[in-house]
From TrEMBL:
Residues 29-488 form the Aldehyde dehydrogenase domain. GO terms for molecular function: oxidoreductase activity, acting on the aldehyde or oxo group of donors, NAD or NADP as acceptor. The lineage of its organism: unclassified sequences, metagenomes, ecological metagenomes. It comes from freshwater metagenome. Pfam families: Aldedh. This is Unannotated protein. Keywords: Oxidoreductase.
Length: 494
């Protein structure tokens, strides 16, 4: 199923009536409420999603707590836990096309990306954390010879995960992998736009042998299901990926309830710094373009600011123009499409509002810049020059295919401009001087810094940010500690 007509036919016939997944089974919302599932590519309702609220969250948390307290999963032999998670990863791989289609129909992402990136990477994350289960050791502290001091990792209990709509399957896997491998139970609240892949992942987990109740999914409104999960007294931790304002609410909900742990992966305004000693500007231009226009700029770490020394800007822009001549923008179910439309009317209108700011303070459109209305969610790749560093265009997260260019007078000025936002999720620097690259990278306030590349991500490295980009890290072995508590057991041997 790789040709455009087949994908389009499947999309035109697809209906997505979906329910809540608790204790291994599907249920209607307790209230009977649903909300529309709108396909971005068709911009029409394709089904109904059960809208969970407090009662459904209570039921899901109770199921997760019951299985955790019983030790069914938590105390299982590590070898057996690993086998179940590996079987789960195998099933995810076998259902790659189905999962990719669900992801595409929900988010509007090109089907080629869902097939080649989202589905296989999510499978790899579950497989990778499965392999950590029998390879993660506890510690013996250097206590006196008449004592034994053990340091063990203990699972936290019930985890609440609230995930966004831009990469729902991958980001859900980032929470699921370490949380479940560590022995926790989890309740996932997917974004309203994108509930389908999480529900399928949960169904496959139970089919693989994961005990019922370990993995539950409650779709619903953030103000209802999301808030109820974050306020729940039996939830030990909230793992949230999303906007800064909602992240602040998550911290408040935790403080107002049981002081649960909170990890936040929030927004970004990632700088792409191009210094004048970068000689391969063609390679830089193509990478810079992918860093902002991939997924129509709907990426938290998107390289949405280009900071370039004046001497090379004109040549760099020429290469960007040339790249876009062959950059395929169009229907998400055309396998050749590299960028499709935005996720919703709401997001389209948000990006349009930023495009309205162009020209108010001397900004100049280099390419793109046209607004989209009606049923069309496709905004063309846009580059805006002469952007003031303190302007809204330079400071706020647009979350669309809009790249703003800021001139730097020299290397020191470029560093100052790169760090001149409240965000600190990611950054890149382009230079031919490796010593300069190391020094520059150390001074960048970002959780991930790329040198002469961008968006090279893998489960083996942690992901998260500084400042308004949040706290805590997804992925890597460090995430195991994020879903566990250290316990010291001191034994007197006298």
């Amino acid at each position: 199923m790789s040709e455009q007509p087949q994908w389009r036919k499947k999309a035109s016939e697809f209906k997505s009536d979906a329910k809540i997944f608790i204790d291994g089974s599907f249920f209607d919302a307790a209230s009977g409420k649903t909300f529309d599932n709108i396909s971005p590519s068709q911009n029409k309702v394709i089904g109904q999603i059960a809208s969970g609220d407090v009662e459904d969250v209570n039921r899901a948390v109770a199921s997760a707590k019951k299985v955790f307290d019983a030790g069914t999963w938590r105390d299982m032999n590590p070898r057996d836990k690993k086998a179940i998670m590996l079987r789960w990863a195998q099933l995810l791989g076998e259902h790659r096309e189905e999962l990719a289609f669900l992801e595409a129909i929900d988010t509007g992402r090109p089907i080629s990306d869902a097939l080649s990136v989202d589905a296989p990477n999510s499978t790899r994350v579950i497989q990778w954390y499965a392999e950590t289960i029998d390879k993660t050791y506890d510690e013996i502290a250097p206590a006196p010879r008449n004592a034994l001091a053990m340091i063990t990792r203990e699972p936290l209990g019930v985890i609440g995960a609230v995930v966004p709509w831009n990469y729902p399957m991958m980001i859900t896997s980032w929470k699921l992998g370490p949380a479940i491998a560590m022995g926790n139970s989890i309740v996932v609240k997917p974004a309203e736009n994108s509930s389908l892949s999480a529900l399928k992942m949960a169904e496959l987990a139970v089919a693989a042998g994961l005990p019922e109740g370990v993995f539950n999914v409650v779709p619903g409104r953030g103000s209802e299901a999301g808030q109820a999960l974050a306020r729940h007294m039996d939830v030990a931790k909230i793992a949230f990926t999303g906007s800064g304002p909602t992240g602040r609410k998550m911290m408040a909900y935790a403080a107002e309830s049981n002081m649960k742990q909170v990890s936040l992966e929030l927004g970004g305004k990632s700088p792409q710094v191009v210094l004048k000693d970068c000689t391969d500007l063609e390679a830089a231009a193509s990478t810079i373009a992918w860093a902002i226009y991939y997924n129509a700029g709907q990426t938290c770490n998107a390289g949405s600011r280009i900071i370039v020394e004046k001497e090379i800007k004109e040549e760099l822009f020429a290469h960007l123009h040339k790249f876009l001549e062959s950059f395929k923008v169009g229907n998400q179910f055309d396998p050749a499409t590299q960028m499709a439309g935005l996720v919703s009317n709401l997001q389209r209108d948000r990006v349009n509002a930023y495009l309205d700011l162009i020209g108010h303070d001397g900004e100049k459109v280099i390419f793109g810049g046209e607004k989209t209305t009606g049923h069309d969610l496709l905004i063309q790749p846009t580059l805006i020059d002469n952007v003031k560093p303190d302007s809204r265009l330079a400071q706020e997260e647009i979350f669309g295919p809009v790249l703003v260019a800021i001139d730097a007078t020299d290397e020191d000025d470029a560093l100052r401009l790169a760090n001149a936002t409240e965000y600190g999720l990611a950054a890149s620097v382009w230079t031919n001087n490796i010593a300069k690259a190391h020094k520059f990278a150390r001074k960048l306030r970002a959780g991930t810094v790329w040198v002469n590349t961008f968006d090279m991500l893998d489960v083996i490295t942690p992901f998260g940010g500084f400042g308004a980009s949040g706290s805590g890290r997804d992925k890597s072995l460090h995430a195991i500690d994020a879903y566990s508590a250290l316990k010291t057991t001191w034994v007197d041997l006298n």
